[in-house]
# Entry
Amino acid sequence: MPSGPGTRQVVCVRCTGRFEVPAPSISASCPRCHRQVSVTDVVVRNTRWGGSIQTCGRVLVYPGGALRSLRIEAADGVEVLGSIDADVTSGGPVLIGPGATWRGNLSAPAVEIRPGATILSGAFRIGAPAAAIAAAG
Ligand SMILES: [Zn+2]
# Structure
């Protein structure tokens, strides 16, 4: 369904409900589960350590970027071109690009691992329904 002008569709990372937000939004209150959720992409260009990340957008780790986090939940997908060390639950497809280094468990509907990527450790559960995100929360 196309979004109206100035808005975009997001999928709630907590309940997988879909709703629209004004395009520049950073966070929003989900109309279905009424929880405040982040709706912006998390972009890592340098080093980011600690905590957990939960967003209705995507998590992007650029080349040279290093993301180390206890737990990452991204409703729209994850793209890693740098290094990542985390347990990741993604509602969208995951790309582990050339030069990427991956350490940690992954649950996602699909994953693409490009030649040149390094997987150091982790249990991958691919093809899990998006509802796994809500269940895991
Ligand atoms: Zn919700």
Q: What stands out?
A: The pocket of zinc ion is lined by residues 12, 14-15, 17, 30, 32-33, 35 (CB under 6 Å). Helices lie at 131-136.
